[in-house]
């Protein structure tokens, strides 16, 4: 088999799985901040129970997501030594900042938040969660800075066959950054909102005792998803302008694309400089799913009336729609990354020059091993999420008072 194809398959597999963890983490932490802030401001125990319940799911996803991220990082050195050698001085700068933010600040804040229940003042404890959320957004921002540079290299010069960073500000004003970052963040909010709405709908369908509690989280999730899908569509379509200017070959074959292909042929030799059809296929299905999820707005008036909720039919619609945002974010990633091919850094570094000089058997073994490991982490994550989500919000382990830590959980009555 072709080494380059195996390396690309491995990158696609590991990145796709890790990205699913990222969007859940980013979406849920935003909702957690809102719920715990409401608890601190109002003192209503309903918000505390919601924070503990959804916080427990968030922590599970975060911990296993960190593990997938560590596994994914290994492939840069193992499979893409050409990328590290040629553009590492530029591409590595935002990644280094993201590592400091994600693995140090964010993890530290989260650890203090997890173990700070009933040990810290409410305001301090809330501030820690705000810190987790802000550093999570910062982490996503720096990842998108790095990715946007690969989409449109700026602020660099090539000396002795190596790209060197000359203008850090150019990385932050990259035309492919702003709308793409907004698109990713709003997609994460869509995933978080739909996940919260679907889990709540499942409990309401089963008529669990905490009807009022899950009715509240259902409404929060649906409102978040409705607002987020509007932002997703706006940021998504807004990217076509900048992308068409800086990546003429991505979605069309106009005169600008033909001129660029002629230039590349002179510089790099003959080859196929048009992206695979898979990029446009992914884009088309993502847009279709986006318009379908726009129907969430139609459910909002219905689900604010208890008698409609008790009919169950709208709840089943919400529950069955849960996979759609997850599929959409993967398709969006395919459209963005595959549409850049055959380049790792657009117009600067061809993909076949970035791959490590290793044999196909070694690359195949790496692909199988990493895929099995990440697949196991993903399955473990969803099993744990499903198990704890099904447990209800009676007395979640997260935030349980120390005196009750060794006592059996007793579901409390629904709170108004």
Automatic annotation (TrEMBL):
Q: Which GO terms describe its biological process?
A: aerobic electron transport chain
Disordered: region residues: 396-416
Membrane topology label: Multi-pass membrane protein
Q: Name where it's found.
A: Cell membrane
Among its keywords, does the record have Cell membrane? Answer: yes
Keywords of this entry: Cell membrane, Electron transport, Heme, Iron, Membrane, Metal-binding, Transmembrane, Transmembrane helix, Transport
Compositional bias segments (type: Low complexity): 401-416
One GO cellular component term noted in the UniProt record for this chain: cytochrome complex
Name the source's superkingdom: Bacteria
Give this protein's Gene Ontology molecular function annotations: electron transfer activity; heme binding; metal ion binding; oxidoreductase activity, acting on diphenols and related substances as donors, oxygen as acceptor
Chain segments annotated as transmembrane: 20-41, 53-71, 91-115, 127-150, 180-205, 217-238, 277-303, 315-335, 355-379
Q: Which Pfam families match?
A: Cyt_bd_oxida_I (PF01654)
Record-stated family: Belongs to the cytochrome ubiquinol oxidase subunit 1 family.
Protein name in UniProt: Cytochrome d ubiquinol oxidase subunit I
Lineage of the organism: Bacteria, Bacillati, Actinomycetota, Actinomycetes, Micromonosporales
């Amino acid at each position: 088999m072709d080494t380059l194809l195996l390396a690309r398959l491995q990158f696609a597999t590991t990145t796709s799985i890790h990205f699913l963890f990222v969007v859940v983490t980013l979406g849920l932490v935003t909702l957690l901040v809102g719920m715990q802030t409401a608890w601190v401001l109002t003192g209503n125990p309903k918000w505390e129970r919601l924070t503990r319940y959804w916080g427990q799911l968030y922590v599970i996803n975060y911990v296993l997501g960190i593990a997938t991220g560590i596994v994914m990082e290994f492939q840069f050195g193992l499979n893409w030594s050409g990328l590290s050698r040629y553009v590492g001085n530029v591409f590595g700068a935002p990644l280094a900042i993201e590592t400091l933010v994600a693995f140090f600040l964010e993890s530290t804040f989260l650890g203090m938040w997890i173990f700070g229940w009933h040990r810290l003042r409410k305001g301090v404890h809330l501030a820690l969660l705000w810190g987790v959320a802000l550093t999570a957004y910062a982490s996503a921002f720096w990842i998108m800075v790095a990715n946007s540079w690969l989409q449109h290299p700026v602020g660099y010069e090539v000396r002795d066959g190596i790209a060197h960073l000359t203008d850090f500000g150019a990385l932050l004003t990259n035309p492919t950054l702003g709308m793409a970052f907004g698109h990713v963040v709003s997609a994460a909010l869509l995933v978080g909102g739909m996940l919260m709405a679907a889990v709540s709908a499942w409990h309401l369908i089963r008529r669990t005792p905490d009807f009022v509690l899950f009715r509240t989280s259902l409404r929060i999730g649906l409102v978040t998803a409705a607002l987020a899908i509007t932002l997703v569509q706006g940021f998504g379509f807004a990217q076509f302008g900048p992308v068409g200017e800086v990546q003429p070959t991505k979605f069309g074959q106009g005169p600008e694309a033909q001129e660029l292909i002629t230039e590349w042929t002179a510089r790099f030799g003959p080859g196929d400089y048009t992206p695979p059809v898979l990029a446009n296929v992914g884009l088309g299905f993502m847009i279709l799913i986006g318009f379908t999820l726009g129907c969430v707005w139609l459910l909002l008036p219905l689900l604010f009336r208890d008698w409609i909720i008790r009919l169950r039919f709208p709840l089943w619609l919400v529950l069955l729609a849960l996979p759609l945002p997850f599929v959409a974010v993967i398709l969006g990633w395919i459209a963005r990354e595959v549409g850049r091919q055959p380049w790792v850094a657009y117009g600067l570094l061809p993909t076949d020059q970035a791959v490590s000089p290793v044999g196909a058997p070694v690359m195949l073994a790496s692909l199988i091993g990493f895929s099995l490991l990440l697949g196991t982490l993903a399955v473990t994550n969803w099993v744990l999420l499903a198990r704890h989500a099904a447990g209800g919000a009676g007395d979640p382990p997260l935030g349980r008072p120390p005196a009750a830590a060794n006592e059996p959980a007793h579901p409390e009555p629904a709170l108004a």
